[in-house]
Model the fold of this input.
Amino acid sequence: MVDEIVNLLKEMHSKNMVPNIVTYNSVIRMHYLQKINDCGIQADAYTYTILIDRMCKCGRFKNALEIFRILLINGCHLHGHTYNVMISGLSKVNCL
Done:
């Protein structure tokens, strides 16, 4: 999968399509979450809090909210910091 991502980034550069921070964040997220899963490690609330925080900081509020909702639906035991991150992100787009 990593080779495919690297090839995609090279192709973007060859077509004068410069990846932005959102592109790289997505690549990092996909790569590292995949590595975590490949090692048989289950991501926890802290892992997802970091992901939600990064998504909010990149302006991907809908994606962050979707992950947050999925965690709640699946009964993940979230801690106060996760709620604070989500509230902070949503307040930036007046969605409280």
Notes: Residues 1-42 form one domain. The chain is about 70% helix and 0% strand.
